Amino acid sequence: MKKFLILLLLAASSFNSVFALDKPQSGREDKRVFYTDYKPDEIYPISAVNGLITTIIFEPGETVKNFGSGFSTAWEFAARENHFFLKPKEKQGTTNLVVVTDRRTYLFDVKLSGNRSKATYRLAFRYPLEEQARIAAEAEKNHVKALLEESPIKENSESKEQTNQNRSYSMNFGSAANSKRIAPIEAFDDGRFTYLKFSKHTDFPAAYRKVDQEETLVNSHVKGDWLVLHGVFEEILLRAGRSVVGIYNDNYTGGGVNEEGGVSVPGLKREIVR
Question: Is 238 in contact with 179 (CB distance < 8 Å)?
Fold first, then answer.
């Protein structure tokens, strides 16, 4: 019987924890200053005291757009940029609070307390998932930068002598009169990036990857007279206004072009890039 009661108490404790509010952690310097990680489905408790203002701090750069509560007449609310302020006006004002910013929605359970030592003076949010994503993006940026520093592009013809380059590219011109003006004069890839060289003083066109008749803008950067595409693709479309040029990787491991004669865009004519 005793063992059964212990198990029952443990089960009840587990059940209650599922529906518990996410309790923020108090600061080291003052127990009335709290920090908590943002989670979209969490409800955050706030303990308010008459005569005191509670400040909620969101992510830097975040802006409060709207807010509402179930007992708004019992509270004073104000917002400025990423700060939100609340102060009780009545002795009985326990309610919920919803704050909508330009980035997120926050849910709060606001309760009145007569104990000033347990009041929420400040509640600051942290964003670990966003921070992890930022760190990952920065690492990827540095990785790409390191690869680009190993770029095989040279200002003379020596780059053509490197054996790890694929120069089997061909291209098509669109029917627009100016299509040839946006065509590259040299093209190759090194298995990681695709390099398109253009005549001096030529405005670089936008580059799109084409897969299953869908076009997606390709990440790229400019290095001298070269447009460097971040990746190796079977088919690339260069566009500038109505002008269009199709670039084809004839050694692409995924296969050749999709249409008869190697043309998948109407009005294009096949030629070789050398």
Answer: no
CATH of 165-272, one of 3.40.50.720, 3.40.30.10, 3.30.70.270, 2.60.40.2500: 2.60.40.2500
165-272 matches 21-130 in CATH topology: yes
**Are residues 236 and 246 in contact, defined by beta-carbon separation less than 8 angstroms?**
yes
Give this prediction's pTM: 0.47
Q: What is the tens place of the pLDDT at every residue in 206-237?
A: 999 988 888 999 999 988 889 999 999 999 99
Q: Say which DSSP state 50 is in.
A: T
* Token code pair at residue 189: 């890839």
- Tell me how far apart the alpha carbons of residues 115 and 95 are, in angstroms, rounded to a whole number: 18
Of 150 and 32, more confident: 32
What are the start-end ranges of the H helices in 71-226? 128-149
Contact 50/88 with Cβ under 8 angstroms?
Answer: yes
Paired strand residues for 69: 97
21-130, which class in CATH? mainly beta
